[in-house]
Amino acid sequence: MLVVATLGLVVNLVAFTLLRSGSKDSVNIEGAYLEVLADTLGSVGVIIAAVVLQVTGWTWVDPAMAVAVGLFILPRTWRLGGQAVRVLIQAAPPHVDVARVSADLAALVGVVDVHDLHVWTLTSEMETASAHLTVTVGADSHGVLDQARQLLQERYAIDTPPSRLSLPTTLAVTR
C-alpha cells in the first residue's frame, strides 16, 4: 500500500506541476488540475494512513483519510461545475450587469434603440456579446458599431467580433 501510494504521489506531483499554471486559463485544464490535485491528496492520505495503520493497527484511518480528502475537494468541484454550467447555458457572466451594458450602448451618439442584447461566456475568461442597435437616419453606422465594440472591450472586457453587433436593415427615424 505504501509503495504504490508513493509511486502514485511522484506521478501526481509531476502532473500537478505541469497543469498548475494553465489551470487559471481554461475550465478544462482546471478540471484536470483538480483531478490531479485530488489524486495527489489521495496519495498523501494513503501514505499517512499506511504509516498510521502499520504503527497503530487502526484500520479506520484509511476511510477517514478518504473522507477528509473528499471534503477538501468538494467545494472546488462545486465551483468548477458552476462555471461549466454557466458556459453551457450561455449565462451572462456574474460580474457583467447586462442592463448597464444596454444603457451604455443606448447612450452612444446616434443610437436610438438596443435590443436582442445577449452577453455570455464563450470559453473560460472570454466573454462575448451580440446586440442589434437601431441608429438615427444619417448616422455613421460603421462608426457607431466601432464605438460600441470599443465600449464593450474597454468598459466590460467583452470581445465582440464584427458579426455580433448589427444594425437593422431599416433604420429608425427620430425627431
Note the main attributes of this structure:
4 strands, 175 residues, alpha/beta, disordered C terminus, four-stranded mixed β-sheet, Alpha-Beta Plaits
Blueprint of the fold:
Layout: H1 2-20, H2 27-56, H3 61-88, H4 98-106, E1 111-123, E2 126-135, H5 141-156, E3 158-159, E4 165-166
Parallel strand pairs: 2-3, 2-4
Antiparallel strand pairs: 1-2
Describe this structure in words.
With 175 residues, the protein is α/β, with parallel strands linked by helices. It has two domains: 2-88; 98-166, Alpha-Beta Plaits (2-Layer Sandwich), CATH 3.30.70. It has helices spanning 2-20, 27-56, 61-88, 98-106, 141-156; strands at residues 111-123, 126-135, 158-159, 165-166. Strand 1 (111-123) and strand 2 (126-135) form a beta hairpin. Helix 1 packs antiparallel against helix 2 and helix 2 packs antiparallel against helix 3 (61-88). Residues 169-175 have low confidence and may be disordered.
Question: What's the short version?
Answer:
The protein is of the alpha/beta class and 175 residues long.
> Mean pLDDT score, rounded?
81
Question: DSSP helix count?
Answer: 5
- Give the CA-based shape: rod-shaped
Approximately what portion of the residues adopt beta-strand conformation?
15-25%
* Strand elements, count: 4
